Amino acid sequence: MEKILQLCERAKEDFSPEIYRGTINIGAAETLCVYRLPQILTTYRKLYPLVEIRIHTESCEKLFELIKTNDIDVALALTDEIISTDLIVHTLHDECMTIVTSPLHSLALKKKVTPNDFSGQSFILTSPGCGYRPLILSMLKNFDVKPSSIMELSSVGAIKQCTICNLGISVLPRISVKNELERGELVEIKWSGPSFPVKTQLLYHHEKWITPALRAFLELCHCSQTIKKQTCNP
């Protein structure tokens, strides 16, 4: 029955003079909602004003579930490379991750910071389910680093503010701390450890019915694609 209803909706769109209408449900990581998605949506709104846009801000782990249950049409995830037989995945950006602290932190002025320097330090991390959190924890484990404490926050904004207040060390996408770095509220430590291969990835189910409205969104995402090899060390 669901397949029949989808075919009926598709037929109606094919004969409609204004096919760019309806609703698209977009899921995205919080950082991407703030720093990547608005530019795309601004252009999309100008081109397709009849389309209703619904944004769902979720952890990457939750986004995978919502795609599989068809509760969202497409997602923008911030994680390492996604390999899945159920999903169509396109990398849009190689994101540069940076390790930041308060200017008052003991590591702020150190000329070379290695993983061993993190032993006994406090960390401020994203909550479980965040796409890049496992990369940070894996690095700590691989170098047998035992932090003195780990504070978990679901909001990138809250993480930044707590880091500014010198409550710990954070690992965040550079795009999310650009303003704070320019104002001197945060500083990048001189990291000489391994990099974090985090990417902005566009994904949707391989059986997803691509409506004209959704296809237009996917095309705009690809137009914004600027994959570059970046050096994340300051």
What does this structure look like?
The protein has 234 residues and is an alpha/beta fold. 34% of the residues lie in helices and 25% in strands. It is built from eight helices and ten strands. Helix 5 links the parallel strand 6 and strand 7. The model is unreliable at 11-15 and 227-231 (pLDDT under 50).
Tell me the overall shape. elongated
Q: Name the helix and strand elements from N-terminus to C-terminus, one letter apiece.
A: HEHHEHEEEEHEHEHEEH
Structural class: alpha/beta
Low-confidence stretches: 11-15, 227-231
Rounded to an integer, what's the Rg over CA atoms? Answer: 20 Å
Number of helices: 8
Please specify the SSE layout and strand pairing.
Blueprint (H helix, E strand, L loop, with lengths): L1 H13 L7 E7 L1 H6 L1 H11 L3 E7 L2 H9 L5 E6 L7 E9 L1 E5 L20 E5 L6 H10 L6 E5 L2 H9 L5 E4 H10 L3 E2 L9 E8 L6 H12 L11
